[in-house]
Design a protein that fits this description.
Elements (H helix, E strand, L loop, with lengths): L1 H32 L3 E5 L2 E5 L4 E7 L5 E4 L5 E3 L13 E4 L5 E3 L10 E4 L10 E7 L2 E10 L9 E2 L5 E2 L12 E2 L9 H5 L7 E3 L5 E4 L2 E5 L4 E4 L5 E2 L13 E4 L3 H4 L12 E4 L17 E4 L6 E4 L2 E4 L4 E5 L11 E4 L6 E2 L10 E5 L6 E2 L12 E3 L6 E2 L12 E4 L5 E2 L11 E4 L5 E2 L12 E4 L16 E4 L8 H5 L17 H7 L1 E5 L4 E5 L4 H14 L14 H14 L3 H9 L1 H10 L3 H9 L5 H11 L5 H11 L11
Parallel strand pairs: 3-5, 4-6, 5-7, 6-8, 10-12, 11-13, 16-18, 17-19, 19-20, 20-21, 24-26, 25-27, 26-28, 27-29, 28-30, 31-33, 32-34, 33-35, 35-36, 36-37
Antiparallel strand pairs: 1-2, 2-3, 9-10, 14-15, 15-16, 22-23, 23-24, 37-38
């Protein structure tokens, strides 16, 4: 857990650094526009802004110490400066300095730093102690090593991380006391300095700077030696070829330092080292084959799956060295398991069915992501938490039944393109499928009565919602509408058939009492009006939402669907005014059942049915003709069958 905390801390500090650099960049632009004055003290000329920023410096040849005194707040010497002050041996940091950026080459021979500010400790090199406010995080970063010569070792005692550029110009033949380093890039050693690198590629396939692995060879067989304490953060999966065999002999603590910055894609890992490592580290070993060494006392491997020692946590499903999941077919998870860890089955494409027992209470983030061969999944009845996108990209999954024990359902199944039916059982209290790129288009989303309200856009992409009571949750329609989507502007081909209409142009809320149809292509203002009507009147809201359509082309099909469910007078009058177009559209779509329904539901009056018959007389719709003749009493005059 400490390593995970350190990683989160590092990422947080990086984020702060990026924000700081952005702000400073703006401020630098302002500083550059400021008028600089030259301040001369003890043989040194400081180019100072009014706000205390030292942007340049000139030092006379006889000067051995440069002091950045109390009037300096920032030392920002230009990175591309070609100035070199060879005779300066010592620099002093004043108590008001809180930011330092300067190239090594300006002071290549500095070997002593004195300081009046705690965040920049005195020593042989320039370092910075990281803090948040008044909290000292006990992390010391190397800022400048000042061009060490070959005979001068790079002593990293007490150093946690190395800032980019800190080793430029260094030529040390030895790197010592590197055991505490946790964050460093290989480029800091290989590209920016001339520090001597120990080449062990012949025996181990790696290159070392002190106890740090800074590079690997093109071989597919590697040994992480026992004396290694860190693998540089940018030695990543890109450099480890697929099918590599990595024999880890260093301590587990050393191997998993900065592990979250790395992935071993389709590699075989043999963890032969000693010591503890957190179970969260297995998430970085997805798509890898993992063998536990004899010294392991924390985890157990059963078949292709690694568990915690007590079998209560399922941590990792193995891959072959060629990148194929070793587990295939139906997977029955043991009933001892309570937690399925993050990324445990990620990319296991050979699995076709998964049964999760009632003992499981938690499914971790991305646990089954990219298991695109799974067609059926059974979830246990006592799951309390489904991690973020735990079922993402399960493209063969057609149904998902979420138990009521999960009180909150977050985005869990984005890009499940074949998912047709999502049932959310009684007990679930909130649902959020709000990711606009989720690509979920189920035919049916069943909502329990325990959900009383929704937030805007939390169900976007869902076209049909089924309720098992007549109580409509507050803001359900606002949840289904994407307020940020561009207007379709009539691009849809509107359908009279319910099954076709709900694919794109119509939203549908099904209750035991009625179906409520809503035009998908309406203005945000009209959606707010319809949402307010549903909030106020629920299932008794008027069945005349056709009037809120954005285009007239959509109004008639929607009005016809609404009339079939609820006989609203306003809807009937609109259909009667447009009866000729309705009949023409139904003939074109070959919807004889729709024509019959228009007669049976009493939309047309007796004097209007004659117009109806004349329009369908040439169509091959015998049943519709028979109904029309029955209603006009013309059957005795026509050579057609009587109903």
């Amino acid at each position: 857990m400490q390593q995970a905390f350190d990683l989160l801390l590092f990422l947080f500090l990086i984020s702060l650094h990026i924000i700081f650099v952005f702000i400073n960049t703006i401020k630098k632009g302002k500083d550059m526009s400021e008028k600089y004055k030259k301040v001369y003290k003890n043989g040194t000329t400081y180019h100072m802004s009014e706000s205390g920023v030292c942007r340049d410096i000139d030092v006379e040849d006889w000067v051995e110490e440069v002091s950045f005194g109390e009037d300096v707040t920032k030392i920002w010497l230009r990175k591309n400066s070609r100035k070199r002050f060879e005779n300066v041996k010592r620099i002093h940091i004043g108590k008001n300095v809180y930011s330092i950026e300067m190239p090594n080459t300006v002071f290549p021979n500095v070997r002593e730093v004195t300081s009046d500010r705690e965040s920049f400790p005195a020593g042989r090199m320039l370092t910075e102690r990281t803090s948040i406010g008044k909290i000292d995080l006990n992390k010391t970063t190397l800022l400048n090593a000042f061009c060490l010569k070959p005979e001068e070792p790079l002593d990293l005692s007490g150093i946690w991380g190395i800032r980019t550029g800190a080793l430029v110009g260094c030529c040390s033949e030895k790197v010592i006391n590197s055991e505490q380093i946790e964050m460093v890039k290989k480029s800091d050693f290989l590209n920016e300095s001339n520090i001597c690198i120990e080449d062990r590629t012949a025996t181990c396939g790696v290159k070392m700077a002190g106890s740090i692995v800074v590079d690997i060879s093109d071989s597919k067989d590697y040994v992480i030696p026992e004396d290694a304490t860190l693998i540089a953060t940018d030695v990543t999966f890109v450099t480890f070829p697929a099918g590599s065999v990595i024999d880890v002999r260093c301590s587990n603590e050393s191997f998993f330092r900065a592990q979250r910055m790395r992935s071993y894609n389709s590699c075989s890992l043999f963890l032969n080292g000693e010591g503890h490592f957190d179970k969260e580290e297995f998430a970085c070993l997805r798509r890898s084959h993992v063998e536990l060494g004899l010294q392991n006392e924390e985890y157990v491997k059963v078949g292709d799956i690694i568990y915690s020692k007590d079998m209560t946590e399922l941590l990792h499903c193995d891959y072959t060295s060629t990148g194929n999941c070793e587990t295939a077919g139906k997977v029955l998870i043991p009933d001892t398991v309570k937690i399925i860890a993050e990324s445990a089955f990620e990319y296991c494409r050979g699995i076709t069915e998964i049964v999760i027992p009632d003992s499981v209470a938690e499914v971790g983030r991305h646990a089954f992501r990219f298991c695109d061969g799974v067609e059926k999944m059974t979830l246990g009845k006592h799951i309390k938490h489904l991690g973020h996108e735990c079922f993402e990209y399960m493209k063969s999954l057609t149904e998902l039944d979420i138990p009521g024990s999960v009180t909150r359902v977050e985005p869990i199944c984005s890009f499940c393109n074949d998912l047709k039916n999502i049932k959310i059982n009684e007990g679930v209290q909130s649902v959020d499928f709000s990711r606009p790129w989720s690509q979920i288009r189920p035919d049916v989303l069943e909502i329990p009565s325990t959900i009383k309200a929704f937030t805007k856009r939390s169900l976007i992409g869902i076209h049909t919602v089924v309720l098992h009571t007549n109580e409509i949750p507050k803001d359900l329609l606002a949840a289904m509408h994407d307020y940020e989507a561009p207007a379709a502007n009539g691009k849809y081909k509107y359908n009279y058939a319910h099954e076709k209409a709900i694919i794109s142009e119509v939203l549908c809320i099904k209750t035991p009492r009625r179906r409520i149809y809503i035009p998908a292509e309406a203005t945000d203002r009209n959606f707010d009006i319809m949402n307010d009507l549903l909030n106020r009147y629920g299932v008794y809201a008027p069945a005349n939402f056709f009037q809120y359509c954005r285009t007239t082309r959509q109004k008639l099909p929607l009005a016809f669907m609404e009339w079939q469910d609820v006989h609203e007078t306003q809807t009937q009058n609109y259909i009667r005014r447009n009866r000729k177009r309705l009949i023409q559209d139904l003939i074109e779509e070959n919807m004889e059942d729709g024509l019959v329904m228009a007669l049976k539901d009493g939309i047309f009056q007796a004097n209007e049915i004659k117009d109806y018959y004349d329009m369908i007389e040439d169509a091959d719709m015998q049943i519709a003709k028979a109904y029309a003749l029955d209603m006009t009493g013309e059957n005795s005059k026509k050579n057609v069958f009587r109903l």
